[in-house]
Amino acid sequence: MKILILGAGQVGSTLAENLAQEAFDITIVDQNPARLAELRDRLDIQTVEGQASHPDVLRRAGADDTDMLIAVTNSDEVNMVACQVCYSLYRTPTKIARIRNAAFHGRDGFFSQDHMPIDVLINPEEAVTTRIKQLLEHPGALQVVDFADGAVQLVGMKAFYGGPLVGHELSFLREHMPQADTRVAAIYRRGTSIAPRGDTVVEPDDEVFFIAATKHINAVMSEFRKVERPYKRIVIAGGGNIGLSLARSIEDKFSVKVIEYSPERCQKIAERLDHAVVLHGDATDKDLMLEENIEHTDMFCALTNDDEVNIMSSLLAKQLGARQVMTLIGKPAYVDLVQGGEIDIAISPQQATTSSLLSHVRRGDVARAHTLRRGAAEAMEVIAHGDARVVGKAIGDIDLPNGVTIGAIVRGKEVLIAHDNVVVEPEDHVILFMVDKTRVRAVEKLFQVGFGFF
After folding, report:
1. In 267-332, beta strands by DSSP E
2. Per CATH, which fold does 358-453 belong to?
3. 359-411 pLDDT per residue, tens
4. Are 125 and 239 in contact (CB under 8 A)?
5. Beta-carbon neighbour count of residue 421 at 10 Å?
6. In whole angstroms, what is the distance from residue 206 CA to residue 226 CA?
7. Residues of the chain with CATH 3.40.50.720
8. What is the largest CA-CA distance in the chain?
């Protein structure tokens, strides 16, 4: 597949890096020659310098035979015009654009072939807000992702002393919780993945990924660590697009305070919030933090557009007694450095956006895909059709690639945890976990259908 990416910023670069590893034919367009040279030296991709919405630049980038356009420049308008040009001049089959401005969203029929021909809209702020909300609803989780319209969730968390399953074999989980069926998809121990089996003993500090019906998630989580009391008091540092979006979405469920440095922005966000308290100040100000009783805060969310401010305010909040801290990190290299120490959870907007794009890039009928563990692993929801190699086989008889686990099957409204005797039927939604993204192609072949199916 030939993919044209417009914009070599953090999202475009992260996406190019992920897709280049999977042997896609990638071309990236940007106006920054130094940035393009760095990407060209590091990745096996083509680069074109120029304005991403100009027809001649798009032609030089190969838009006339591109299968997919992904427009992720910093300008909504450039992204929209580029999609229009590729549709009008080159009939590009799939056009994806990042549109940040809320004024463009919620306009029924506007983004269509008759008006603005964009097939898929990506909103980074919405993706990050959704990810943070899921974490707030599941205290103790490191990552939570939905499948099958929310019927099934995959959760990543760290096992601690005191969890009933810690020190026991995984087979003990079914005996201890007969009413809550689950499947451990992967375990990471000291940074290395180990294949989970019934006799695998869970150790403290293991990072465990498990799949279960959404209604059973919190019960299963309690097996790997002491039950966390629900979050009540949330402090958000940064009243930008993400901070405001999060505050608006959770202010009815939590006690929310927003700390914003700009007095003008404080006024604007205060007018758009109903219950949350808006404070003018600096989140790295110790006196302000003490004055606002940070020691009684359940979750401190640092969501400014400055990585250093986010990291320093999070460290200060944790030092002053905040129960948990969550930090937005724009630079991917920082994520691995900070998470797991004083900072409990690091959120990467690039990875959240990449997850939004993956299901459209994957071959086959992929309903949803999520990048996990900072892009190293991936989970997919694939629909099994017709004469695909998995159809009619019991899960235990499917020759899965190394490092690939089937976690669950959703059949209509029924959730079936993937035990060896479960048989895959046509139209099943099969949820898989891959510890190694290089196995994606092998997985896609398992779900390919023959020409006779059509």
Report:
1. 277-280, 299-302, 324-328
2. Alpha-Beta Plaits (3.30.70)
3. 788 776 888 888 887 777 889 999 999 888 999 999 999 999 888 999 999 99
4. no
5. 9
6. 15
7. 2-122, 233-351
8. 71
Please state whether beta strands 207-213 and 152-158 pair in parallel, antiparallel, or not at all (unpaired).
antiparallel
Would you identify the CATH topology of the domain 2-122?
Answer: Rossmann fold (3.40.50)
The topology (CATH level 3) of 128-221 is Alpha-Beta Plaits (3.30.70)
Structure tokens of 439?
């196995």
Contact 432, 443 (CB under 8 A): yes
Q: Give ∠ CA 235-236-240 in degrees, rounded to 5.
A: 165
Contacts 24+ apart (CB under 8 A), 246-250: 246/129, 246/132, 246/133, 246/301, 246/303, 247/273, 247/276, 248/272, 248/273, 249/129, 249/133, 250/133, 250/136
Number of residues that this document lists for the chain: 454
Interval 164-206: pLDDT, tens: 889 999 988 888 777 788 999 999 998 888 889 889 999 999 9
User: What tokens does 258 get?
Assistant: 């927003």
Distance CA 207, CA 186 (A): 8
Instruction: Report whether CATH 3.40.50.720 matches the domain 233-351.
Output: yes
Which residues are CB-neighbours of 394 under 8 A, at least 6 positions away? 420, 421, 422, 423, 424
The side-by-side arrangement of strands in the sheet containing 94-98 is 46-49, 25-30, 2-6, 68-71, 94-98, 120-122
Alpha carbons 324 and 301: distance in angstroms, whole number: 9
